[in-house]
Amino acid sequence: DGGITQSPKYLFRKEGQNVTLSCEQNLNHDAMYWYRQDPGQGLRLIYYSQIVNDFQKGDIAEGYSVSREKKESFPLTVTSAQKNPTAFYLCASTELAGRSSYNEQFFGPGTRLTVL
Amino acid sequence: GNSVTQMEGPVTLSEEAFLTINCTYTATGYPSLFWYVQYPGEGLQLLLKATKADDKGSNKGFEATYRKETTSFHLEKGSVQVSDSAVYFCALGKHTGNQFYFGTGTSLTVIP
């Protein structure tokens, strides 16, 4: 089955530690995204990538870093510089608009990060 | 700029009641419009979509019509069920830059 996987589902971090959230897709999508969701709130874009080895900052990139070494993988690192990292993190992917009339985003199941 | 304004919740309805969740958008050009649903602890799932003016998206009894004249994409369902309890997000997709813009979400609770 094609889809997006995120791991782990739950992650606990001590203050001052960096942690990496995994996102893998087998949909052959070019573009991938990371969002942060806080309780009762909408989605805020952290980073996105439209092609391997290239990515752009979203609205709340400070304290986060990403890499895109392979088309199917887009890991997110939450660094110690992120002051309030406890949140639900969602990864998404989409085909580039030129290849499809529909550019809906497909989402993974999410990772809940808690800072202890 | 591009943005989505969504009806604030939470919304509580009795089973079999009629549902409307309002969504309006601001965009340049011709965006695609989407409704997503999120169940507790899960990611977002696409509920329905429309890619041009006057298109009607529909799925699982939910409907929404792309109204360019009123820049709206309101979600409706004639008879809600307890299993429809979730958070609903309206979203706008721009081909240029492949950017998505989400509303803040509307929490729906359906009581028996």
Please specify the SSE layout and strand pairing.
The complex is a heterodimer of chains A (116) and B (112).
Chain A: E1 4-7, E2 10-13, E3 19-25, E4 31-37, E5 43-51, E6 54-57, E7 64-66, E8 76-78, E9 87-94, E10 106-107, E11 111-115
Parallel strand pairs in A: 2-11
Antiparallel strand pairs in A: 1-3, 3-8, 4-5, 4-9, 5-6, 7-8, 9-10, 9-11
Chain B: E1 3-6, E2 11-14, E3 19-21, E4 23-26, E5 32-38, E6 44-50, E7 56-59, E8 62-65, E9 75-77, E10 86-94, E11 99-102, E12 106-111
Q: Could you describe the 3D structure shown?
A:
The complex is a heterodimer of chains A (116) and B (112). Chain A contains no helices and eleven strands. Chain A is mainly β and 116 residues long. In chain A, the strands form two sheets. In chain A, strands 2, 4, 5, 6, 9, 10 and 11 form a seven-stranded mixed beta sheet that branches. A four-stranded antiparallel beta sheet of chain A has the order 1-3-8-7, with no helix packed on it. Chain B has no helices and twelve strands. Chain B has strands spanning 3-6, 11-14, 19-21, 23-26, 32-38, 44-50, 56-59, 62-65, 75-77, 86-94, 99-102, 106-111. In chain B, the strands form three sheets. In chain B, strands 2, 5, 6, 10, 11 and 12 form a six-stranded mixed beta sheet that branches. In chain B, strands 3-9-8-7 form a four-stranded antiparallel beta sheet, with no helix packed on it. The chains are: A mainly beta (116), B mainly beta (112). Chains A and B meet through strand 5, strand 9 and strand 10 of A and strand 5, strand 6 and strand 10 of B.
